[in-house]
Amino acid sequence: MSDSPANSRSLGLLEKYQLGKRLADCYGTVNLAVHLHHATSRPAQDEKSWYLAKLTPAIHQICDEQPYLVSVVANYDTSKAHWIQLENMDALDIVVFKTISLQDPTAVESLIAQQCNHVFDLNDITKPLWKLCIASDPEDLNRCILVLTWDHVLYDGISSTIFFDRFLELLNSTNEVERSETTFAVQSISKMPLPYDQRSPPTPKLLTEVVPKAFTQLLLPSFITRRSQVGLWRGQHKAKEETHKTMVRIIEMDTDNLITRCKAEKSTPHCAVHVAAIMAASSELMDSATKLTLKTPINARGLCNPAIPHCEMGNFVGSFETTATVPLTRSFWEETRVYRAKLKDGKYNAGKASAYLAYLGSYPDEYKKYLKSPFEKHEIGRGGGIELSDLALWKNQTGKGQWNLEKATFCQSINVYDTPLTMNSVTVGNKLRIAITWQDGATDADKVDNFAKKVHQILIEQSQ
């Protein structure tokens, strides 16, 4: 698309991959839920108008600043898929409302699961691929949960914190506009940002990295690759060729003691959660399996040359993967230090992960085939393991104002043919929240509940 306008371009590799998950019908959306306190009490009646009057100016402003918020994919299911810009937007297409009990953990889990399972209509190129859900409680007129939900083709998890850093700043500084009009014209994008694979990221060497990987994953007969992966945990029940239906459980804990212990042990909360997940999976999920693969998306912005600006939204991720044999033989904190060292040493190579997508072949057919391939390759029909996607400590920079962030929940849809379980975490202040997701029916809910309780128990015990 060399002759395309400045506000349009073809899809990058990661963007094709994320859309491929939609085409394979194995994945939904990503979301970040922020638990907010607003100093001004909303009215008990007509709260929708009150929130819209507050949010619409901020929505308009941030849409003028972030290209992906005003972009959609045209011809998404063809080889000519490309970004185009919306000309006008309506806050009513973005903002939806829910009423829940904010103090009921089950209600919050249900709210977040609903957002994970939301499907944006890719055929409608007049509507944005993101939304804001405002969940309010009639018993608390000064609090709400604001859930940002987006199609993963737009941007990664870190981008959602970039969004809210700016959005809350705008809410605390932009004058409220008392008007019924919710539509606004979109400022033209001067130049659509280039995707990750065109920003000089780390790239694999053809002979020493690409060819061996292709030989192992693509050329060896499936019975040989299966034999080499004996003992890997791939889930409880066989995957079905079905639409994703994500279930959610949330763990919350104070981190004061955990952080103190991590500093003393020369480790980090992320590493502690990683090891706690292995130990809990070993006792509560894995049965006779002896190996557990853990996948960790990494923020690859700093690996590009030049580095991606810290305020730029988009898909800029790598993937770091390790396999643990259970039971673990080292002490808890020694395991965290070993993992921390591996993660540090492996971060650069993890940034190469998406480059291998260039060797898949044509989009969309080969991408869709690749994403569904675990269903054919493995007896249980999925790749296996646990994904731990961690936004780490989110130091919200908006300061104090009318709108204040109290805690947050990061979550995403399960991938039907990939990991049977995902853990998505973020820390705000001293509140760590971990959202655990799984495909309905793929793992028994009581097993997931026991796993969640065990992770929490281990982290509390190791914080002492």
Structure description:
The protein has 464 residues and is of the alpha+beta class. The protein has two domains: 9-186, Chloramphenicol acetyltransferase-like domain (Chloramphenicol Acetyltransferase, 2-Layer Sandwich), CATH 3.30.559; 198-393 and 408-462, Nonribosomal peptide synthetase, condensation domain (Chloramphenicol Acetyltransferase). It contains eleven helices and 16 strands. It has helices spanning 13-23, 47-65, 105-116, 157-171, 206-219, 222-228, 256-264, 269-284, 332-350, 365-377, 445-462, and strands spanning 9-10, 30-38, 71-74, 82-85, 88-90, 95-99, 130-137, 140-150, 183-185, 246-254, 291-299, 317-325, 386-393, 403-412, 421-428, 431-439. Strands 10-16-15-13-11-12 form a six-stranded mixed beta sheet, with helices on both faces. Strands 6-7-8-2-14 form a five-stranded mixed beta sheet, with helices on both faces. α2 crosses α4 (157-171) and α8 packs across α11. The longest helix is centred in the first third of the chain and has 19 residues, at 47-65.
List segments where confidence is low: pLDDT < 50 over at least 5 consecutive residues.
219-228
Order of strands side by side in the largest beta sheet? 10-16-15-13-11-12
The helix content, as a percent range, equals 25-40%
Coarse shape = globular
Mean pLDDT: 93
Number of helical segments? 11
Any idea of the CATH class of the largest domain?
Alpha Beta
State the fourth-level CATH superfamily of the largest domain. Nonribosomal peptide synthetase, condensation domain
Radius of gyration: 22 Å
Quaternary form: single chain
Main pleated-sheet profile: 6 strands, mixed
Strand content: 15-25%
Q: Structural class, judged by helices and strands? A: alpha+beta
Q: What series of H and E elements makes up the topology?
A: EHEHEEEEHEEHEHHEHHEEHHEEEEH
Would you identify the CATH architecture of the largest domain? 2-Layer Sandwich
How many structural units, i.e. domains? 2
Number of beta strands: 16
For the terminal residues, how far apart are their CA atoms?
58 Å
CATH fold annotation of the largest domain? Chloramphenicol Acetyltransferase
InterPro entries: Alcohol_O-acetyltransferase (IPR052058), Atf2/Sli1-like (IPR010828), CAT-like_dom_sf (IPR023213)
Pfam families: AATase (PF07247)
